[in-house]
Amino acid sequence: xxxxxxxxxxxxxxxxxxxxxxxxxxxxxxxxxxxxxxxxxxxxxxxxxxxxxxxxxxxxxxxxxxxxxxxxxxxxxxxxxxxxxxxxxxxxxxxxxxxxxxxxxxxxxxxxxxxxxxxxxxxxxxxxxxxxxxxxxxxxxxxxxxxxx
Length: 149
Hints:
- This protein is of the alpha+beta class and 149 residues long.
- The protein is built from six helices and five strands.
- It has a three-stranded antiparallel β-sheet with strand order 1-2-3. Strands 4-5 form a two-stranded antiparallel ribbon.
- α4 (77-85) packs across α6 (105-121).
- The chain is globular and about 50 Å long.
């Protein structure tokens, strides 16, 4: 069972109610869309590139440690963990370790970095510097059409 929940801090609840002169805040975002660099190829040959990842819970990080596959090979931890927090890739909603195993290596690396960004840093933006003009700007790692940031 997957669920989407929007949490509010006491300050946010107060802002929504209009008390205390506090400016209104957005509720905590728990799901983040992404676009895979290559895409997941399902058994029928269809390519799925867009998806959704939710924030991880403590349980998401603890349960894989009891998995025998992880105990035998610690590198498998990321496969199990990513399969727990990705809720959809294209039209595929039954995300399990087998689906993550079938991703291209570049897509798995993308999802690992995406996981780290949304869970540790709280956003999907990265600061980059143009190699030609040395201008600094932010790009959204969640994906989008080519040329969009």
